[in-house]
Amino acid sequence: MAEQLPILFRDQHLVVIDKPPGLLVHRSEIDRHETRFAIQILRDQIGQRVWPAHRLDRGTSGVLLFALDIETAGKLGRQFEAGIVDKRYLAVVRGIPPESGEIDHPLTRQRDSYEFKGENSSDEAQTALTHYRRLASVELPFAVDRYPSSRYALVELLPVTGRRHQLRRHLKHIAHPIIGDATHGKGRHNRFFAEHFGANRLLLACTELSFDHPISGQRVNVKAPVSGEFATTLAQLGWLPELNNR
């Protein structure tokens, strides 16, 4: 049986899925040997072409929006560029950040290795803003790093801008990297979560997306449940009630 992706919302113009971790949105030169892509799976599943309105990192799970025609895709893209789309993420991070705050830290553009840098392109840092709120925290009696115990937190992330890898880079910038992040995190903490909690993934998920329907103009709000290894890890840490109380 062909692979099926969970559909969270669908009409004649849009389809929203709950992307599993480890799945690329589209073909990439970085992963030339990969054969599974959200675009291809969803196209085969619903029997028509789809256009992604935004992107999620391969390791990130959650709400992913597609248009069913090129014109609708353009309208959605302009909403993302204008900051009209609201995005909410959950992440498990190392350490215990303040109860709430914002990360206002410019980020340089990150290109894929195969991208051409034209003469008019710039590596000047772009504004990047993320709001966050701590939902829960824990101190575990394990000497993962140089201290006799290790602290972790569950945070809600609200990116205002949409720079590439913004959340992962911003959390690293404030010294609270996301667990499971092989690029911006710390290997010993990632391995600890894999060995003790069975979490072999990036603990980052897009749990909610709100946008104006490009045809009707009505506000659409789509949520994705936390599931799989992410949910199992939160349950082991006693944090699932925090999600229900949000």
CATH superfamily: Pseudouridine synthase
Number of strands: 10
Name of the CATH class? Alpha Beta
Amount of helix? 10-25%
Number of individual domains: 1
Structural account:
The protein has one domain: Pseudouridine synthase, CATH 3.30.2350.10. It is built from 6 helices and 10 strands; from the N terminus they run ββαββαββββααββαα. The N and C termini lie far apart (37 Å). The radius of gyration is 18 Å and the shape is globular. It is an alpha+beta fold and 246 residues long. The chain has helices at 38-46, 70-82, 166-173, 187-197, 228-236, 240-244; strands at 7-10, 14-19, 51-52, 61-67, 86-94, 100-104, 129-140, 150-159, 204-212, 219-223.
Protein topology:
Blueprint: E1 7-10, E2 14-19, H1 38-46, E3 51-52, E4 61-67, H2 70-82, E5 86-94, E6 100-104, E7 129-140, E8 150-159, H3 166-173, H4 187-197, E9 204-212, E10 219-223, H5 228-236, H6 240-244
Parallel strand pairs: 4-9
Antiparallel strand pairs: 1-2, 2-4, 3-4, 5-8, 5-9, 6-7, 7-8, 9-10
